[in-house]
Amino acid sequence: MAVLAHNCSNIRVTVVDINEKQISRWNDPDLSKLPVYEPGLAEIISKTRFKNLYFSSNVEQSIKEADIIFISVNTPTKMHGIGSGQASDLRWVESSARLVSKYARGYTIVVEKSTVPVRTGAKVEAILTSTSQNIDNETLHKSFDVLSNPEFLAEGTAIEDLQTPDRVLIGGKSEKAINALSEIYKNWVPEEKIIKTNLWSSELSKLSANAFLAQRVSSINAISGICEVTGADINEVANSIGKDNRIGTKFLRPGPGFGGSCFKKDILNLVYLCEHYGLYEIANYWKQVVEINNYQQERVFRIVVNKLFGTVANKKITILGFAFKANTNDTRESPSINICKKLIEEGAHLSINDPKVTKNKIINDLGIDPIEKNCTNYDQLLGSWSFEPDIYKALHSSDAVLILCDWEIYYELKWSDIIKGMRKPSWIFDTRNVVSSAAIEGLNINLWRLGQG
Ligand code: UGA
Questions:
Q1: pLDDT at 382
Q2: Do β-strands 168-172 and 446-449 pair in parallel, antiparallel, or remain unpaired?
Q3: What is the separation of C-alpha 421 from the centre of its chain, rounded to a whole number of angstroms?
Q4: DSSP codes, 163-175
Q5: Cβ proximity of 352 and 387 under 8 Å
Q6: Which of 135, 258, 396, 429 could bond to 421 as cystine, CB 3.0-4.6 Å?
Q7: Catalytic residue check, 375
Q8: How far apart are CA 108 and CA 155, in angstroms?
Q9: Which pLDDT does position 371 carry in this prediction?
Q10: Is 264 touching ligand 1 by the criterion CB < 6 Å?
Q11: Residue 51 appears among annotated catalytic residues
């Protein structure tokens, strides 16, 4: 919405949330306190906020005034009841639709921006029209059109992705509504990049795009395992296959497994949809993408333990990167969570570093309190972790370092200095291709790289 406001000075954008605390953080004069870290976001907010971009918790008033409403609430995987572990929880979409239905005035376009299961549009429409049919003077004049306009931005590059998208997808029944939304995007997106489809194609395209992307990551990760045992090099393989135009170079970076709030959730949602329609073989096909992803995390964990003589008990391991990827403070479904938990279970003492993730977030994710004392105190039976914002301190007296995110600063580490403070034999486990063999040449340190061994 910040990018929309930035490109359309004649449109007033109001972001509303029932969570007042969250809204006050978006209104904080100190832009470093915004709830989301995203390169370039603070700059855009500083240019638009209080001009044509507002953050408010007055939901009722904002809905009343709006011509177009984007429902942008989260749709996490259901953890209880029917479809538990696979289906999306639509309670917030539904409650938003009910609020819109109650407070909207006149003709309103309601846009599904959240990632939703196919045919959610029908549910939203049913909720909107059921209330508007209530006979009372104010609601008599209500009418709605529902559009699907899924978001394809990736975290870490969100502003760039929004500013120059590969495509904008608008699905719906009403040509009038589709054109109205398209006119807004035309302020900065070339017309040929705006795709217009029916509602269901749009909803399914979003899930399918994420499933295809996740499948690429699982495919390259599966090949990385073969590289390590055969002497092939994953970078050389990725480069060679990516040069085929039909395959393409992007999304072929191996890693500890995909994370983030989208891939796993959306594939499981697709799996649920397939099972619902009795398409069990198709469901199993997509499930495998998630299974390879779980396997990749397990594989990294086991390699660390094996290389450290089969035990990590009472060893200090430095974890570089806790977010699900670089350039974000988001840790949802981060492979680091699973890998760290397993290492702690095996008795390791972890010193965790991440440039943007806070200690509190890690406490939440690991479900275990940090041990604030120096990790070199090795008298405990169980493993532990501590948070260390200073990378060099984090690495001091470590037996091993495990790189799980490719933050820019990790490329610049001076291994010749670091090695002096590490316990011997010292190990670097690099799951993101951050450390080159040149960077450690002549140093007494072992390097294991994912997909290269
Ligand atoms: C993903 C999609 O890329 C977006 O198009 C989509 O809009 C978004 O989900 C969403 O549904 O909201 P995001 O999850 O933010 O975006 O991040 P990605 O860049 O796709 O990365 C996902 C995971 O895959 C990360 O853990 C990343 O490290 C991993 N990955 C990605 C790899 O391991 N290798 C790659 O080559 C690419």
A1: 80
A2: unpaired
A3: 35
A4: HS-S-EEEEES-H
A5: yes
A6: 396
A7: no
A8: 30
A9: 84
A10: no
A11: no
Whole-angstrom Cα distance, residue 52 to residue 361? 32
Output DSSP code: residue 318.
Answer: E
What atom of ligand 1 comes closest to residue 161's alpha carbon? Answer: 5
Per-run averaged pLDDT (10 residues), the chain, 453 residues: 98 97 96 92 97 97 97 92 91 95 96 92 92 54 95 96 98 98 98 97 96 98 98 98 98 98 95 96 98 98 98 96 97 98 96 96 94 58 90 95 98 95 97 95 96 96
pLDDT for 141 = 80
The pair of structure tokens assigned to 180 is 């109205």
**CA atoms of 263 and 268, how far apart (whole Å):** 9
Of all atoms in ligand 1, which is nearest to the CA of residue 324? 26
Q: Specify whether the CB–CB gap between 321 and 290 falls below 8 A.
A: no
User: What's the CA angle centered on 264, arms 158 and 327, to 5 degrees?
Assistant: 30
Residue 376: predicted pLDDT: 53
For residue 434, what are its two tokens?
A: 């951050």
Report CA-CA distances (Å) from 174 to 115, 128, 272. 20, 15, 29
Taking CA atoms only, the protein residue closest to ligand 1 atom 33 is: 255
- What is the token pair recorded at 258? 């995909």
The candidate with the shortest Cα–Cα distance to 113, out of 104, 102, 100, is: 100
CA–CA separation, 134 vs 129, rounded Å? 9
> Which residue has tokens 């589709």?
178
Residue-level length of the chain: 453
